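Appendix B, example 12.
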Amino acid sequence: MGRRRSRRSASLELDRFPGVLRGEVAAALGLAGRSLRRWHDRLEAGVVANEAPRRWAHTPGSQREALRRVSATVRQSVVDLIGDASGVLLLSAHAGPRFVLVDLLRSIRADIVVVTANPEQWNDDERSSVAAGDSTVADVLRLQFLRLYAALDSGGVGLVSPDGGLGEVGASVEILGTTVTLSRAAAAMARTTAVASVPVVATWAGDQVAVDIAAPLDGTRSGSGRQQDQHWTEAYARWLDGVYRADAMNWRLPTGLTLEFFERSAALTEWHHDYNRMVARIRTSSG
């Protein structure tokens, strides 16, 4: 993942945190002292590391480079999950090296339906349609959801990240001590197809990529559809909160739900903007 920059040359030093800001982080994450400094160091390392799979996505043979970071044991755990699965909805998030997770899943199940608003992970038809002005991002998402429903209904496998912009109707939940609104689209899909909803996330283990597979979400079948969707989304939010708290390298900046966390105050927002600029420099230097 490259040579580590010296602390003195870094522009994102933890010492730039105002005192009240440290208090906010400590209160939200339960961190202080050395634990807080380690959180910051891991966060900065993750900003750099999580951009690498994005660069691979634009490089010939990129899938081989991504999958080289996945051990045979990790790959086998995913094969065991979806290789011969019938009707499984995988739930991910904008966390960790997500590009590697998508490449891995597609290498195991070529028929997997991936719902994403990110053009870098679309198929050629979706990209060309939007580029030609024949459709919008919203159109692509609608078609992806239709394909997802058909796949799950016929025993296929799909991947969706409920923390992304998947629809206008949302459910209010708490993540990292902040109230956020998540789309209920994935919850409704899980409810109407009655398939298992399994959270998965790619994480860094040194310079290798691990895949954490959680137990299926415990969705209730009582109450109205809206109540069931709320219960399901709360369960997903608890899982995602745990992903963020487990390792700051899982935080994907500058977008995603972590943005809500960084908007808790003007000072923290400005500090977060430094990360935006850092990511921009990385992307510019990598072409």
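The first strand starts at residue 88 and ends at 91. Residues 1-11 have pLDDT under 50 and may be disordered.
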